[in-house]
## 1
Amino acid sequence: MADNPVRRGWLGHLSRRSVLAGAVASAAFPAVAASTSAAPSSPSSAAVPGLRTARAAGTTQRVTIYAEALSGGRFGYGLAPGEATIPGPLLEIVEGDTLEITLVNTTSQRLSIHPHGVDYDVFSDGSPFNASFNEPGETRTYVWRSKERTSAGGRGWLPGTAGYWHYHDHALGGDHGTQGLQKGLYGGLIVRRKGDLLPDKTFVVVFNDMTINNLMAPMTPMFDAVLGERVEWLCIGHGSMEHTFHLHAHRWADNRTGYLDGPNDLTQAVDNKDLNPGSSFGFQVIAGDGVGAGAWMYHCHVQFHSDGGMAGVFLVRNEDGSIPDHAQEAIERFHGGHGGHQGHAG
């Protein structure tokens, strides 16, 4: 049977060598696929030789998340006491899976966890509107469900839940969780479709008012990959300001996954996309494809935002893992040029 470009994900003419296998990872924290009630949902390489793809298992995945107070008036989510981060842990399931999150509120504030893109009942809404939140010191379980595309009985098709989504507090400081968002209570959520290509690394970038992951240059995250790795970006917008996300020297298809369905797919290629409050998108690229190793910028393309510290570095190392001299020099220039910016939202 001929290879199916829809399942492979069409990225143009790439050698097998340029598509590397490896564990899904994040720049700062692991992707969570917690304990399950059935066989674990794991990648399958049978469908696409040499590439890892997502496999639907219809399992219930369980994870415990701790909401904690951090220094500087910030808050974060973590997988264990004392491990809270901003953003919180990256949560990942495949369409058909259910995610049960036990949220432990270790703080003195009312807070919650609210998802985008998945199904949940009113008791797992995470909003005070539905009396769905954690009081100080309270433990509560939230259930999120995912599903595949379904027919509406001759009236078209209903979308599934596959996509690049996010979660966040909806109760700290008010009924909409505005203070929780300002102070760092948010994280990434990915729902994959069966057959989706799996990346070597996933980076989560949150434009939150005038910060990136509640930091400003030169303290913004430096994301790190090796030339030829398949790198996934999950971009999220929070706060009250409009932004655009731009990645230097790399482009992606403006669709759900970032790669084309085949050589005849005419989806527009982009390297800059709006990233406004509450929105999110994601894409995959091959690190350094066609441009080589180096230090590449990512930033908001609203000019006074980038000037004000909304910029970071995507480091593409040589194939042997070393850093090119010109990349090291660029990183040093970046830190020198943004020496006056630091801090966090709120």
## 2
Amino acid sequence: MTQPIELKVNIPQKQAYSYDILIGQNILPQANEIISRYTSAQKFLIVTNETIAKLYMGSLDIKNSLWLILKDGEEYKNFENYKLILDTAAENFFERNDCIIAFGGGVIGDIAGFAAATYMRGCDFIQIPTTLLAQVDSSVGGKVAINSEYGKNLTGAFYQPKLVLSDISVLKTLSLRQLKTGLSEVLKYAFIEKSCNCPLNYRFFDFLKQNKQEIMDLNPVVISKLINICCTLKAAVVNQDETEKGMRAILNLGHTYAHAIENLTDYTVYTHGEAVAAGIKMAFKLALNRGLVGKEYYDSSLDLIDEYDITPALSDFDKEKFYDEMFLDKKAKNGRIRFVVPNGYGSVVLISDASKTQVLESIC
């Protein structure tokens, strides 16, 4: 095992909730030793899905652990499985200082984290993300939730983990489609970098253009740097706005559109990343039509998304239904849809005054 990259998520108002992110190769076999430094838990409930269990159940050996294996898919991030996690913990006499481990992608992280946030009003929680999307985005920042029939992530909490342990070696088992779905969240950071108020300037847009082949080949040096950059940018935002009272909304570039796409297709047609990539394109079109970005930046940004070949051909949506669906977005306020849109190179802004005509014209 090479020495992992270590970075800190600091929550200024809640220093006790600050935590480390460890990024490295072949660190799963060392997980038991590493985790013991971050929690005093005596028992561990490892929540995962069928795909990850088949691949890595033998690689993660945590003492005094119990495995709970859920079906794989966004549609299983529901009340029934949330209750199953709570019931499993209770039936096995888990206490408040015991630990729930999310071992999987964003779906597992969200539902296991929400269970941890609410079991006995909060037990220890550790993220071991296994997808690129989870390693660069959803495992960091403490957003945990489940879906309802009315929309995505409408029931949830902000609950920080004790540790995020990202082993890049597991990414080699991702399908090309799953790798690309994670890259949509990676690309998002190129478009919001300046708005993150991070003291470091990565010029992430250029990094993604210059290293495309190494990224697609999962070059370990490049991928480690990529995950480190994304997590550092997200941590910079979370450190300033843990519970999304203001600037944290910038992390949702493209997501207002994406959640509508997912809801309208019952989460069964497009991956989250595919929907986000399509949503980012729509946000750019809204920004262009409002004069917030110029044609040159618009074209170069869409070209970058297209270089990574993430966005599928979308269904022929009823635009009126699409528009109505966006009012269920969590950023909606006072009966208005709020959008995160680009307003310059690497910069975004939150707007709430887009007319219905402008929104309908941006849906493509």
## 3
Amino acid sequence: MSDKLRDGETDYLFQAILSLKNLDECYAFFEDVCTVSELKAMSQRMAVARLLYQEKTYAEISQLTGASTATISRVNRCFAYGQDGYKIALKNLSEPNEGQKD
């Protein structure tokens, strides 16, 4: 992780996210923390990442998500040069998680 991001406040935020137990708690937390636009933008980027991971074309991704080519390109750059956060999350989502809390 970038040293520019890592600090006690960010650690506390991430610990708060990790403490959430189910989708309802996530919705409640993120509705309080983010604007609707911010949450929709993050959701769209995750959808784009999933489709890039599935090797869809930019045209297919844009049609399926409504994302601009600039957004798709930004997410794709994270795949090529980022910290592998999208890949880690997508891999974790694809693996069965025993004892997962709903």
